[in-house]
TrEMBL record:
<dbReference type="InterPro" id="IPR038718">
    <property type="entry name" value="SNF2-like_sf"/>
</dbReference>
<keyword id="KW-0547">Nucleotide-binding</keyword>
<dbReference type="InterPro" id="IPR000330">
    <property type="entry name" value="SNF2_N"/>
</dbReference>
<dbReference type="GO" id="GO:0005524">
    <property type="term" value="F:ATP binding"/>
</dbReference>
<dbReference type="InterPro" id="IPR001650">
    <property type="entry name" value="Helicase_C-like"/>
</dbReference>
<feature type="domain" description="Helicase ATP-binding">
    <location>
        <begin position="551"/>
        <end position="714"/>
    </location>
</feature>
<dbReference type="InterPro" id="IPR027417">
    <property type="entry name" value="P-loop_NTPase"/>
</dbReference>
<dbReference type="Pfam" id="PF00271">
    <property type="entry name" value="Helicase_C"/>
</dbReference>
<dbReference type="GO" id="GO:0004386">
    <property type="term" value="F:helicase activity"/>
</dbReference>
<keyword id="KW-0378">Hydrolase</keyword>
<feature type="domain" description="Helicase C-terminal">
    <location>
        <begin position="841"/>
        <end position="998"/>
    </location>
</feature>
<dbReference type="Pfam" id="PF12419">
    <property type="entry name" value="DUF3670"/>
</dbReference>
<dbReference type="GO" id="GO:0016787">
    <property type="term" value="F:hydrolase activity"/>
</dbReference>
<dbReference type="InterPro" id="IPR049730">
    <property type="entry name" value="SNF2/RAD54-like_C"/>
</dbReference>
<keyword id="KW-0067">ATP-binding</keyword>
<dbReference type="Pfam" id="PF00176">
    <property type="entry name" value="SNF2-rel_dom"/>
</dbReference>
<protein>
    <submittedName>
        <fullName>Similar to tr/Q4C2A8/Q4C2A8_CROWT SNF2-related:Helicase</fullName>
    </submittedName>
</protein>
Length: 1020
């Protein structure tokens, strides 16, 4: 795996971008070499970037010296550069910066932006943090251009384009870039300042971008001196075709023209923008006893808004530079007067104050204060000036307003359970912050006839609409309100809804409502239930918590999303929850479980394994029941299992049943809210709803909305509202406040535990073995049945060694059919995973492995099947997949193992043939092992599993054994699991024992149970 890095190199003539690559495997090392051992050669780097920008060919090979984080390996005297994502061994010596000679490619600004715009901003493994920093800077440059924040310029006789940073937002963003630049970005220039490198890069890429986009044709009179300058602002030539005398006149005129904004231009001569990161700040001071409001003047540091220097102190010092706390402010008086001059154009009281020789502040009356807060402050901020308002007067979420305090409780009606729709008993009170306001107090505030008033030491603006709403509450003239438990959950999460046209600033729940909200916000307080007596198995402590959480939400009629990591047992927790309902005599109607087609059989097996007392019915297949026949059949069942495709095909049948509950397994299948199956599940009536998923959000927040809207309809509003209120601000603008509000809203309904949680790790065994039951597709079923019938007839007619060979060949071919029809038919590719239940399930599980940042081994006894799998999964997952078989060359074998084990950015999935990879390898980087087809010899399978589960493994290992239901795979697995004599023979003799069976016993073992077939229409 290659990881790309980059540095901006400032040159005496032209600046360039240096791109270099890092690969996981190094060259031979010596103690004296300075060449970076993991550096990708220039030619290989050029080839690597071609897949992103094939037409990009204007670059130059280069080798430069960079100081990079390095470490000394245990018991070694030399240093190694630290790889991206590498975790050091505890015995390695601490990090230090060491010089390394690095080979790479240099690009002009115009060329590198063509590559940058093709690279993803997302956290992709092949993009280093330093290169990602430059990608974000490039994104900011596009934002500046979109907002017109640029200006044509002249610099030493050449034309150029300057970025214009004349607003608070852009100055603050610049300061943030300076603060967050990765140290590796400064690895080329010694003692280089971050701001110098950032501004030089910004200037060059803005200039390059505009020259590419602007037409060179200028419709202007040839007699005007500016025409050559304007013509030179496009294309690659910067020279201005003017004589020296005229060029000097033009440059002088230009400098006079831009003088008012010159400190906001990003150019090499503007030291004020680089060094003096200070601006004028206006602080509004409330009146003290007998005094007026004051607007006091300061200088404020852009990178630290808390750092302020008062105008009074600046005039008192009277020096050309001001020194304080290791900071130096050059020409503070000049910066102050320039900023005040700009502010005076917008606000008359400031202009009047400038008539004084040393202006420090200005006085304001209450009407001027209101005008300043409402219409002037934001204009000053937009001009790049700072504004500080008293607490409560800041516009936005911190603004002090008249608000409502609600005290609420809930009492269920006789014979009804509490639910989201249960109505509240509540009282409304008028408040400012924490202080309640009576009618008498409010009337006194209005008597002051001031738009800005003080309440309990805090200031607020009395807005006319708020005053009218407050009077309606105090006079009991508001429209009657109905508030429900659903409203209470929103209000308690901090979602500031308006009630009676005023914001709810304080919500106090009482009694059972308080218990509900407290437990939802902190599920650790939920009372644990006893494990159901009829549960066949052991529930771990975290699983008992999960079952108790499901039971608590069901009690309140709330939908629940159990989103534990793969392998933590979501299915057993759900089954235990159903048994808990049964023990409480609460399971009076059937529960419908909807699962992907590939796991319908697995659900049936898991229910029979953990809860044999639950009556289970599987609804699928060509001859499935419909209408009244179906309703009659499921009436006395505890659980009904069906698949997502049948939800909309058989909707009329399914929605006619009164379901106790509706459970969605792999609930990400309804992430597209407009899909038929997503709309169909919402129409099915159910007492409770549960979603099981390891990935509640895969790509977009609207996927989360779709699942939560299924669980608790309308709780997050319509999809359009959710997109406007949360998805757009969070995904496009990174709005942290919206993200915090969304988390508060959804946290009560999602329980997600990770394998890496300390409390979970303590509960887990070192190795978990799980059987994964998969159905056959219709095509697999036909091939299987035909082969068995045809071969059994031949077996009956043969004896001895020929019979022995026929049986072994039959077993091998049946395994191939269970894998995929394409494997048995010797096809060159796997056209679709829909032809195989095993492949469908493997795809879903491997996707989850990759999403969780884990690594996996996939064992097969067929080399040709491993190759087919590699090609198919690489295409399906867009991930590199390794494959090792007996024909793999020793050199390639060693390299693959090294990459999988040691490359931090290496492939996550490693397919191995059982014979080639089953012994002698150390692959402890994997924490998942898949046995996609079975050897039927536990000793051999355990040897393969031990490639991951051995000394050096630091994580719990999950072993997944795939079994096709209704086939010989399921029957032989049952023998092995039950440890009968036949299973012991299997351990000793592999598959040879099967050749000793008579034809009738062999037929019983091999014949297909057709109920296990997944019909074709379900896999559309």
């Amino acid at each position: 795996m290659t990881t790309l890095h980059g540095n901006w190199l400032i040159g005496s003539q032209d600046s360039v971008f240096f791109l270099w690559g890092e690969q996981w495997q190094g060259k031979e090392l010596s103690e004296t070499k300075e060449n970076h051992p993991f550096c990708l050669e220039s030619g290989a780097l050029a080839q690597f970037i071609q897949k992103f920008s094939p037409q990009l060919d204007c670059y130059s090979p280069e080798s430069i010296k960079l100081s990079l984080p390095s470490y000394s390996p245990p018991r070694k005297k030399y240093f190694l550069p630290l790889l991206s994502g590498q975790i050091l061994e505890p015995t390695a010596k601490s990090l230090s910066w060491q010089p390394w000679q690095v080979s790479g490619l240099t690009f002009s600004a115009g060329m590198i932006i063509q590559l940058w715009e093709k690279l993803p901003l997302a956290k992709t493994e092949f993009i280093g943090n330093d290169l990602r920093f430059w990608l974000y800077l490039h994104r900011w440059s596009l934002d500046l251009l979109a907002r017109g924040k640029f200006l044509a310029g002249i610099n030493q006789g050449e034309s150029c384009w300057y970025p214009l940073l004349d607003s608070t937002i852009d100055r603050t963003r610049l300061a943030k870039f300076i603060q967050t630049i990765p140290p590796v970005c400064l690895a080329y220039q010694e003692n280089s300042e971050p701001q110098t490198i950032i501004l030089d890069c910004l200037k060059n890429i803005v200039d390059a971008r505009l020259r590419q986009k602007i037409d060179s044709t200028v419709n202007i009179s040839p007699s005007l001196m500016v025409k050559p300058w304007l013509q030179s602002l496009s294309g690659d030539h910067h020279d201005i075709a003017l004589e020296a005398k005229n060029l000097q006149r033009l440059e002088n005129a230009y400098n006079n023209w831009v003088f008012p904004i010159q400190e906001s231009l990003v150019n090499g001569n503007n030291r004020q923008l680089i060094e003096n990161q200070y601006r004028v700040c206006l602080s509004l001071q409330p009146p003290r006893l007998g005094t007026a409001w004051k607007l006091t003047y300061y200088l404020q540091a852009l990178d630290d808004p808390e750092f302020l220097i008062s105008a009074k102190l600046i005039w008192l010092e009277g020096k050309e530079s001001y020194h304080s706390y290791q900071r130096v402010v050059n020409n503070p008086q000049e910066i102050l007067l320039k900023g005040l001059g700009l502010a005076s154009r917008l606000y008359e009281p400031i202009r009047i104050s400038l008539e004084q020789r040393h202006p420090e502040e200005c006085s304001l009356d209450s009407i001027e204060v209101y005008q300043f807060i409402r219409s002037i402050a934001w204009q000053l901020q937009d001009q790049g000036l700072g504004v500080i308002l008293p607490t409560g007067l800041t516009a936005g979420s911190n603004e002090q307003r008249l608000g409502i305090k609600i005290a609420a409780s809930v009492t269920p009606k006789k014979g009804e359970r509490l639910s989201l729709t249960s109505l509240l008993n509540f009282q409304l009170k008028l408040v400012v912050g924490e202080q309640e306001i009576s009618k008498k107090d409010f009337d006194k505030l209005l008597e002051k006839k001031s738009p800005v008033v003080e309440v309990g030491g805090k200031w607020l603006i009395l807005q006319p609409t708020d005053v009218k709403a407050a009077q309606a509450i105090l006079n009991n003239t508001i429209t009657p309100l109905n508030l429900s438990v659903e409203d209470a959950l929103r209000l308690s999460s901090g979602d500031n809804n308006l009630i009676a046209k005023l914001p709810v600033v304080n919500f106090q729940a009482e009694g059972a409502l308080k218990e509900l909200i407290d437990n939802l916000n902190n599920n650790q307080g939920i009372q644990l239930i006893n494990p159901p007596r009829e549960f066949r198995g052991e529930l771990r402590p975290y699983q008992i918590k999960g079952v108790s959480w499901l039971a608590f939400l069901e009690k309140w009629g709330l939908g629940a999303c159990l989103a534990d990591d793969m392998g933590l047992g979501k299915t057993p927790q759900l089954i235990a929850f159903l048994l808990a309902l049964k023990e409480e005599d609460m399971l009076v109607n059937p529960v419908l479980v909807v699962a992907p087609t590939s796991v319908v059989n697995n659900w049936e097996h898991e229910l029979r394994k953990f809860a044999p007392t639950l009556a289970v019915f599987v609804h699928h297949g060509e001859k499935r029941l419909k209408g009244q026949a179906f309703a009659q059949e499921v009436k006395n069942k505890s659980v009904v299992i069906t698949s997502y495709p049948l939800i909309y095909r058989d909707l009329s049948t399914l929605e006619a049943v009164q379901w106790q509950g509706l459970v969605l397994d792999e609930a990400q299948n309804i992430k597209n809210s407009t899909a038929k199956q997503s709309q169909a599940v919402r129409k099915i009536p159910a007492g409770f709803r549960i979603a099981l998923t390891g990935t509640p959000v895969e790509n977009r927040l609207t996927e989360l909305w779709s699942i939560l809207d299924f669980l608790n309809p309308n709780f997050l509003g319509t999809q359009a509202f959710f997109q406007r209120r949360f998805a757009l601000p969070i995904e496009k603008y990174g709005d942290q406040e919206s993200l915090h509000n969304l988390r508060s809203l959804v946290r009560p309904f999602i329980l997600r535990r990770l394998k890496t949680d300390k409390t979970i790790i303590e509960d887990l065994p070192e190795k978990q073995e799980m059987n994964i039951f998969c159905g056959l597709s219709k095509e697999q079923g036909q091939l299987y049945q035909q082969l068995v019938e045809k071969t059994l007839q031949k077996i009956e007619e043969t004896q001895g060694i020929q019979k022995h060979g026929l049986i072994l060949t039959l077993l091998m071919q049946l395994k191939q059919i269970c894998n995929h029809p394409g494997h048995f038919l010797k096809e060159n590719s796997l056209e679709t995973s829909q032809r195989s239940g095993k492949l469908l399930r493997l795809e879903a599980m491997v996707e989850e492995v990759i999403a969780e940042g884990d690594r996996a081994l996939i064992f097969t006894q067929f080399a040709e099947w491993g190759k087919l799998l590699q090609t198919h999964l690489q295409k399906k997952l867009a991930e590199e997949i390794l494959f090792l078989s007996g024909s793999t060359k020793t050199k390639d074998r060693v390299e693959m193992i090294e990459r999988f084990q040691n490359d931090p950015q290496g492939p996550k999935i490693f397919i191995l043939s059982l014979k080639a990879g089953g012994t002698g390898l150390n692959l402890t980087r994997a924490n998942h092992v898949f046995h996609i087809d079975r050897w039927w010899n536990p000793a051999v399978e355990n040897q393969a599993t031990d490639r991951a589960f051995r000394i050096g493994q630091k994580r719990n290992v999950q072993v997944h054994k795939f079994i096709c239901t209704g086939t010989l795979e399921e029957r032989i697995n049952e023998m092995i699991e039950s440890k009968k004599q036949l299973a012991e023979q299997t351990v000793d003799a592999g598959e040879n024992w099967l050749t000793e069976l008579d034809t009738d016993r062999l037929r019983d073992l091999l014949l297909l149970d057709r109920s296990a077939i997944i019909d074709e229409e379900e896999t559309d």
